[in-house]
């Protein structure tokens, strides 16, 4: 029999269940009310490898949360563990502030090797605090220092972190310095149109706001955007629109900051999501997967923006040697094994399979994503459809589009719980928390991908049956 998590004696299911429940009970009594994942996922992970997590109660799960997209290679990948052991065995210091070390040099060299050529040729790197939100703060401070301006352009539905400045850019706090712009999407287009015409209107809105002297929006310090909005509901930016935003900012001397915290390192089917559109940003914000599962965050930016004085942005834990070693190993493995290309192929297959569910289940409003960053939006099939607008009645087929059904957050939560019951860990996102999100490791096999789709489909079927019986 397998050994339990706490020792070498055979597993006792009753004892393991008691230990599992005790840990959860103590967490509830001791930890902050702000905890999130622990509320939705009442599990106690004790072992993990690749896609699989084992709980203290002996149950096994397929993990499609992946540390909120942090685990590009899944849990405890051999190359990551070997890189960490090598540093530990070498006697190298683990805490070095911003001093130069061979480990940092190797990480920086590998990272620069992966960057879009137009940026890598003239880039500078700033090591920030351990989280992506720290890097966002650094990016905002950088462009404000370089331009001498304070305003910022961001987009509705964005998520850039939980610190004050990042929340302002995300729409989680009100700040007069931040102007929020429409982010194009098909299913819930802010103009009720979707498609290329909706993206065109979103771009024109941005241009008009910047060029209208009476708009109340002075020239900003920068524009920050996600190539795929993750927490916003897995909404990929149209490539043409992203190129338009690059042209808009370049023409007006506005630095373009691209947040690749969740989309980077192969997740979307390209090493960096901006590569789909060929856009070269002025600043890239990087975290999550670049640390190979350990805390690491950096910004990479054009050398002409490097105007801040020494100490303008610092952080005690910006010299995490273990994270740099794990990150270099991860970047190298993804690059050498063409995992971005693998994510594109496998993600397209999973999206195709999941889109068939919309024919089977009326509660599936839209399936969308890019690579292995996938979202399934759940809706209320009995909800009232908004009345057609003047735009929807227009004879121009480009302006015609069906109104989306109301979001169904309670239904999405039920599907998430049903997935967990079937051994599949997913999370929710979107404006109304009605989007089931899948962020599996880039290393999953075809068989594992099929199992993920099957378990999600089974969960949807179970929730649909319960809903029919209750109505």
TrEMBL record:
InterPro entries: Aminotrans_3, Aminotrans_3_PPA_site, Dat, PyrdxlP-dep_Trfase, PyrdxlP-dep_Trfase_major, PyrdxlP-dep_Trfase_small. The keyword Transferase applies. The lineage of its organism: Bacteria, Bacillati, Actinomycetota, Actinomycetes, Kitasatosporales. It holds the Pfam family Aminotran_3. Its EC number is 2.6.1.76. Its cofactor is pyridoxal 5'-phosphate. The keyword Transferase applies. This is Diaminobutyrate--2-oxoglutarate transaminase.
């Amino acid at each position: 029999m397998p050994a339990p998590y706490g020792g070498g004696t055979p597993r006792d299911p009753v004892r393991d269940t008691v230990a599992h429940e005790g840990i959860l009970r103590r967490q509830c009594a001791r930890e902050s009310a702000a905890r999130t994942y622990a509320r939705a996922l009442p599990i106690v992970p004790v072992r993990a490898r690749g896609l699989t997590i084992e709980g203290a109660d002996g149950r096994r799960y397929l993990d499609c949360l992946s540390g909120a997209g942090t685990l590009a290679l899944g849990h405890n990948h051999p190359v990551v563990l070997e890189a960490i052991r090598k540093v530990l065995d070498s006697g190298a210091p683990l805490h070095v502030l911003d001093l130069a070390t061979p480990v940092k040099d190797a990480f920086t060299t590998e990272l620069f090797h992966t960057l879009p050529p137009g940026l890598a040729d003239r880039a500078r790197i700033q090591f920030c605090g351990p989280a992506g939100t720290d890097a966002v703060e650094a990016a905002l401070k950088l462009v404000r220092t370089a331009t001498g301006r304070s305003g910022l352009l961001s987009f509705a539905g964005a998520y850039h972190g939980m610190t004050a400045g990042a929340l302002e850019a995300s729409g989680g706090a009100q700040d007069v310095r931040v102007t929020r712009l429409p982010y194009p999407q098909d299913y819930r287009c802010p103009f009720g149109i979707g498609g290329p015409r909706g993206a065109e209107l979103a771009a024109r809105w941005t241009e008009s706001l910047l060029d209208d002297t009476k708009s109340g929006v002075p020239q900003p310090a920068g524009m920050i955007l996600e190539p795929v909005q993750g927490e916003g509901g897995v909404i990929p930016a149209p490539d043409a629109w992203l190129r338009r935003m690059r042209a808009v900012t370049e023409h007006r001397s506005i630095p373009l900051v691209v947040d690749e915290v969740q989309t980077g390192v192969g997740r979307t089917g390209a090493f960096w999501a901006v590569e789909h559109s060929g856009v070269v940003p002025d600043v890239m914000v990087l975290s999550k997967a670049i640390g190979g599962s350990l805390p690491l965050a950096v910004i990479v930016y054009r050398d002409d923006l490097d105007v801040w004085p020494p100490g303008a942005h610092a952080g005690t834990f910006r010299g995490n040697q273990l994270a740099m070693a794990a990150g270099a190993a991860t970047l190298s493995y993804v690059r050498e094994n063409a995992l971005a290309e693998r994510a594109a192929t496998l993600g397209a297959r999973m999206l195709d399979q999941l889109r068939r569910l919309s024919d089977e289940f009326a509660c599936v409003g839209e399936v969308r994503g890019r690579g292995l960053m996938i979202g399934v939006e759940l809706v209320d099939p009995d909800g009232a459809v908004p009345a057609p607008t003047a735009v929807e009645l227009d004879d121009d087929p480009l302006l015609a589009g069906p109104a989306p059904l109301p979001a169904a957050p309670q239904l999405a939560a039920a599907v998430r719980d049903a997935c967990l019951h079937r051994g599949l860990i997913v999370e929710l996102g979107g404006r109304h928390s009605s989007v089931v999100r899948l962020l599996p490791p880039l290393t999953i096999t075809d068989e594992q991908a099929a199992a993920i789709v099957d378990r999600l489909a089974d969960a949807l079927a179970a929730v649909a049956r319960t809903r029919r019986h209750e109505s």
